[in-house]
Amino acid sequence: MENFITRRRRKELIVAGLLLAVAVFAPMAIRDVTALNVIILSLLFAGLAQAWNIIGGYCGQISLGHAVYFGMGSYVSTLLYVQAGLPPSAGIFIGGAVGGLAALLVGWPCFRLSGHYYAIATVVVGEIGYLLFLNWDYVGGATGVYIPIAKPSLINLQFGKDKLPYLHLVLAFVAATWLAAWLIEGSRWGYAWRAVKDDVVAARSLGVNIFASKMAASAISGFFTGLGGAIYGLYVGYIDPDSVMAGHFSILIALPTVLGGVGTLWGPILGAALLIPLKELSSSYLGGSGRGVDLMLYGAMIIVVALARPQGLVSLFGGRKHGAP
Amino acid sequence: MALLEIDNVSKSFGGVAANVEISFAVEAGEILGLIGPNGAGKTSLFNSIAGEVTPDSGEIRLDGQRISGLGPVACAERGIARTFQVVRSFDSMTVLENVMVGAFSRNARPQAAMRAAQETLEFCGLHGKADRPAWSLSPPEKRRLEMARALATQPRILLLDEMLTGLTPTEAQGGVELVRAVQRQGITVIMVEHVMEVVLPLVSRAVVLNLGRVLTIGAPAEIVRNPEVIRAYLGDRYAAD
Amino acid sequence: MTLETVLQVAAGGLLMGLIYALVAAGLSLIFGLMDVVNFAHGELMMLAMYAVFVIWQASGLDPMLQLPIVAAMLFLGGMAIYRGMIARALGVQFNRGMVQIFVTFGLAIFIRGAAQFVWGGEFRSVTNTWLSDRSLNLAGVYFPLPQLAAAAVCLAAFAGLLLISRTEFGKALEATREDREAVALIGIDRDRIFALGWGLGAGAVGIAGVMLAGFYYVGPNVGASFALIAYVTVALGGFGSMGGALVAGLLIGEVEAFTAVVLEPSLKQIGVFGVYLLVLMFRPRGLFGKL
Fold first, then answer.
1. Which residues of A touch C94 (CB under 8 A)?
2. Does pLDDT of C291 surpass 60?
3. C266 located within any domain
4. Which of A174, B82, C59, C242 is the most buried (most CB within 10 A)?
């Protein structure tokens, strides 16, 4: 049946396909390692932000503890490789699965809470995860874990000094999260979750199971966050609680979506494309000499965007007018 | 056997009795009015029927099966749908998407849910507004949207909470016609209204609540002549001044 | 553990708990009034601590004497934050809940960056105050005077907040909390009440900061760890409940003190978080939260 929704969804898919094609080939022209690094990080956070969008944007549950799933994913995949010799090409998916499982475990007590109570509970869960890993000797405690450098290969997802394969790896990650969000938007779940976000009482009066909706959204979000964490660990080659589980990671995962537009397909990508380069550039140019100026800029930008464009920067493009509030 | 039986239902909130030993039955296919002055316990009883709250004692049965205490999701699955006194639209979605949330409860596939939702919108006279964001509707349109959303769950019983209150006479007339059309589809309707004049011409019977208890049950003509009802309402108006 | 150790640990927990309670009270006041969680609350405390340090360095004025000055500064700062940002955040049409959270988060990051810019990343501390290195010995239990004074001042400030809630202004606060639309009708300026609420909330955390500066280091990240405890305290006590903040603050002080001894100091917060999650399993709105 031809109507507004089907037309819009087809258009979104075509635009995404075109963008993906450009994103696969365009970076081949870039030789600058710093630039490639910024692009890789931006893409990674676009995917992570999309993962957060699934629970925070579509289902409306503001999680501020996603660093736990991120960290779990990277620890599980890394330790499976280091301790058991499991190739990361398989390990990253197990890392993702553990992230999803962790999200279910966290959701079980936390989804009894709503609103600010839920948000604060997730901050606490994040902090507990961080403290546990910091004090857990088997996972390297505060020292962390190095990923041994292996010969570049697809099975080990190691590519030595060549950045381009990593870029394509995170691009695949972004594409997967985007596709997941697109599929969710059109499915029964997506409708139920958005109803949960807008009005819990009305949603359950229409037969929507609130707890199950939140749990399902949380599990999918946790899976992709863990997957992203595993990929991040491979990319940086070294993980410790401060680099993969600290509380500010939770904010950094949520922020691109909030700035770009919650509950929209393009908001997380747009947000990450602006936020991450700005953050990387300001900390490399201002972080050393300016001491704190980068944080001030970053904080000020959050305040200004949140107040001036509460529906997210994506609304500037007028793409999804209906997704406004 | 009656379709819906309210059997000796009591409910209090923080020591304040909202419903006291309420009993009545609803026959399949009728439009039943639930009226009474402010604070009579109408909405509280509605919430019990819809599963939003659990009665402290007593039972509510649908087709002889207990539904009280099962929760709103189970009640919706068994065929009870409702609207709300204060409109609750899903404001981040379009009108059609709002109704699709309801339609998904009977259609797992998105295309089927969309078709069902479109038909329901047409039935409720909102098909021209399908792609508008829900927040942009006027208050009377939002009431229709809530009704469409509820109807999309293909209910056996539709609970309407003050859907005619605050409408202009023309809008109210449209609402009345819509309720009649719903009844013709074989759906049993229970309407909560605060203002008697609005609802009495529409219903086959009315239950009058006062101070949490059933004051009387009867046909509209009997209700308007009942001295107790008149006293309850006049008292209410008097107190309001 | 000997009885003496138990008492000593309990005393330490009590003193810390009262500080937590006051930090949480400010947060709770603001939340109760307008459903906003101030995620920059810890950073306001940090600013108060730096203010003490700066004034002390410049003039040698003892922290105790600075109390009214810094509290007043924070009071004005809180009002300014409300007028400049929060009033706007309350007025947005879309995603109000999310905007409120992230605006105060942005403020927290901004203040942290500013502190780093102005004072650098290293830890500072105020030394040689009137109370430094003195302590009270009560039946073998040792109370360091700076902590004792901090606890006493926090308790007094807490009592002050309760007293304020009994005055005309307090009644206006209560009315604003109960029914936001109706108060406009009876001539209460909602915006002014909210601004004063922010002033009081910030002032309360400012007092806690001043007293804390008497014995605790100051650094750009000091606020973050205290704020986390404060959020937990408020959620545990029940958002908007002052009594809840006091009880939860004391409980958390004790749990933290005993976890540090029984397990190890680096895990002291685990005990706190564990108790918090456990309580929320059974009382999702905290010990004294309205359902």
1. 310-311, 324-325
2. no
3. no
4. B82
Q: State how far the Cα of A295 lies from the Cα of C117, in Å rounded to an integer.
A: 9
Domain holding A105, by residue range, is: 4-247
pLDDT by residue (tens digit) across B114-140? 999 999 999 999 989 999 999 999 988
Cβ distance of B97 and A194 shorter than 8 Å: yes
Q: What is the pTM of this model?
A: 0.91
| Interface confidence (ipTM) of the complex | 0.91
Q: What is the number of structural domains in chain A?
A: 1
Whether A56 and A63 have beta carbons less than 8 Å apart is answered as yes
The SS3 of residue B156 is coil
How far away is chain C from the Cα of A124, in angstroms, using its nearest Cα?
7
Give whole-number Cα distances, B120 to A37, B145, C106, in Å: 52, 10, 45
- In chain A, which residues have their Cβ closer than 8 Å to the Cβ of B127? none
Lowest mean pLDDT among B177-191, C29-43, C106-120, C165-179: C165-179
Task: Tell me whether residue A38 is in a domain.
Answer: yes
Give the residue extent of every domain in chain B. Answer: 1-79+157-241, 88-154
Decide: residue C241, CB within 10 A, 0-12 exposed, 13-18 middle, 19+ buried: buried
Residue C127's domain spans which residues? Answer: 3-220
Query: Contact C102/A258, CB-based, under 8 Å?
Result: yes
- Residue A240, domain member (yes or no): yes
Lowest mean pLDDT among B144-148, C37-41, C157-161: C157-161
Total domain count, chain C: 1
Rounded to 5°, the CA angle B165-B166-B170 comes to: 95
In whole angstroms, give the CA distance from residue A97 to residue A224: 8
> What average pLDDT does this structure show over C213-234?
87
| CATH at residue A133 | 1.10.3470
| C141: in domain | yes
The pairing of beta strand B4-13 with beta strand B80-82: unpaired
Average pLDDT per 10 consecutive residues for chain A, totaling 325 residues: 81 94 89 91 97 96 95 95 91 96 94 87 91 87 83 81 90 97 96 96 96 97 97 92 89 93 94 91 69 85 90 76 43
Look up residue B96 and give its two tokens.
Answer: 């059609």
CATH number of the domain at B1-79+157-241, please? 3.40.50.300
C185 or C81: which leads in pLDDT: C81
Dihedral angle sign, alpha carbons of residues B185, B188, B190, B196: positive
- Please check whether residue A257 lies inside any domain of the structure: no
Cβ contact (<8 Å) for C93 and A262?
A: no
Of C113, C115, C269, the CB nearest to A131: C269
Residue A85 lies in a domain: yes
**Distance between CA atoms of B171 and A192, rounded to whole angstroms?**
31
3-class SS shares of chain A: helix, strand, coil, % to 5: 75, 0, 20
Asked, for residue C171, whether it belongs to a domain, the answer is yes
The pLDDT value given to residue B234: 66
